[in-house]
Specification:
about 375 residues; alpha/beta; Isopropylmalate Dehydrogenase; ten-stranded mixed sheet; 12 helices; about 45% helix; binds nicotinamide-adenine-dinucleotide
Length: about 375
């Protein structure tokens, strides 16, 4: 099986962190674990420079035929004065829209070695591993009517509309239940069914979907405000949280900060499953293009590497390899190897390239250990 993947490094630190992912891919192919067909193209400011648009039609078609896309980051001061509709970020928005990526996945994982980076007490966040599934293309950010109306006499009225249909609720619900099946099998659905009709519909549709197709997954419901509180009080009670666009925007940022570091946060945006169960998917670090440190070998590549691990798990069904990459990251952090953004007392500060070296070395060491163990077991 050859897995197709399109790489879009983008701008600023994007190419630097993606270079480490490319090295990881080369290592995995060399070890014979997996084979990829890799396409690479430009997006954002780099695409404006090359093609005059932040996402060229050809690039979009490449992404569509690959099905799985890994992006670095877009944007930077060089393109700040570009017209709004063709600014670098518009390329990313177009990609999400054209591929109809309606479910945003944001994991929040606390690595033991980074436990002090969280502002919460270690005993509250130790071992934390949760996944927020946010509806991305509907709800109050897109609902009509919207706008600001002049009422005269200095009075104005601002309107946004929270609106969801059964189809929109069920398709994101399906993603959350499918993800829960790959994890520990629990979903919490968050809305405000107590005060919003759209929330009442959300709860009813998620409940019906669960009964019809996902009775093996444990489902609970929670009001979104209580969910925000519980994330701080006892975040480990959650496995997968599914919620709408607005609440998801807030809850995913809150959950991310439980882990304490921007340079460590991966994400994914998924579309509908085809008849073979495959989904269009875009994986990207949560961080931006960090122009302040671009080109200085200072960027933390771990968010990009962990985004690639998500692709292995959720697009290529290779949870075994995703586990290995995550274990390698864990081993590197435990060995006290850090980039500047996650530096701590007694640790060794390294650059982007050296962090990539360390992850590949840890992966190779773990592979060697696993093969030694399996040979020993076979001999016994
Ligand atoms: P940013 O995430 O790029 O940077 C915020 C701070 O975090 C900076 O001090 C930066 O140096 C640091 N940082 C970010 N990622 C890091 C990493 N991997 N390793 C070490 N330090 C890291 O956000 P910003 O400064 O608000 O935005 C900069 C540019 O990125 C803007 O043009 C913005 O539009 C764009 N942006 C793009 C995306 C995206 O591509 N998805 C997301 C956010 C911002």
């Amino acid at each position: 099986m050859i897995y197709k993947i399109a790489l879009l490094p983008g701008d600023g630190i994007g190419p630097e962190v993606m270079a480490q992912v490319r090295r990881l891919i080369a290592h995995m192919e060399k070890s014979g674990d997996i084979r990829f067909e890799v396409w690479e193209d430009v997006i954002g400011g780099a695409a404006i420079d090359a093609y005059g648009a932040p996402l060229a039609d050809d690039t979009l078609e490449t992404c569509r035929s690959a099905g799985t896309v890994l992006m670095g980051a877009v944007g930077g001061p060089k393109w700040d004065k570009v017209e709004y509709s063709i600014r670098p970020e518009a390329g990313l928005l177009r990609l999400r829209k054209e591929l109809d990526l309606f479910a945003n996945l944001r994991p929040a994982i606390v690595f033991d070695a980074l436990i002090d980076a969280s502002t919460l007490k270690p005993e509250v966040v130790r071992g934390l591993d949760i996944l927020i599934v946010r509806e991305l293309t509907g709800g109050v950010y897109f609902g009509q009517p919207r706008g600001i109306e002049d009422l005269g006499g200095g009075e104005r009225r601002g309107v946004n509309t929270q609106v969801y249909t059964t189809m929109e609720i069920r398709r994101v619900g399906r993603v959350a239940f499918d993800m829960a099946r790959l994890r520990s099998g629990r979903v919490t659905s968050a809305e405000k069914a107590n005060v919003m009709e759209s929330g009442k519909l959300w709860r009813e549709d998620i409940t019906a979907l669960h009964a019809a197709e996902y009775a093996d997954v444990a489902l609970s419901h929670m009001y979104a405000d209580n969910c925000a509180m519980q994330l701080l009080r006892n975040p480990r009670q959650f496995d997968v949280i599914v919620t709408d666009n607005l609440f998801g925007d807030i809850l995913s940022d809150e959950a991310a900060m439980l882990t304490g570091s921007l340079g460590m946060l991966p994400s994914a945006s998924l579309g509908a499953a085809d008849e073979k169960g495959r989904r269009m998917a875009l994986y990207e670090p949560v961080h931006g293009s960090a122009p302040d440190i671009a080109g200085q070998d200072k960027a933390n590549p771990l968010a990009a590497i962990l985004s690639f691990a998500m692709a292995l798990r959720y697009s290529f069904d290779r949870g075994d390899l995703a586990d290995r990459v995550e274990d390698a990251v864990r081993a590197v952090l435990s060995a006290g190897i850090r980039t500047a953004d996650i530096m701590a007392d007694g640790c060794r500060c390294v650059g982007t390239q050296a962090m990539g070296d360390a992850v590949i070395e840890a992966l190779a060491t773990n592979e060697a250990r696993a093969s030694y163990d399996s040979t020993r077991t076979a001999k016994k």
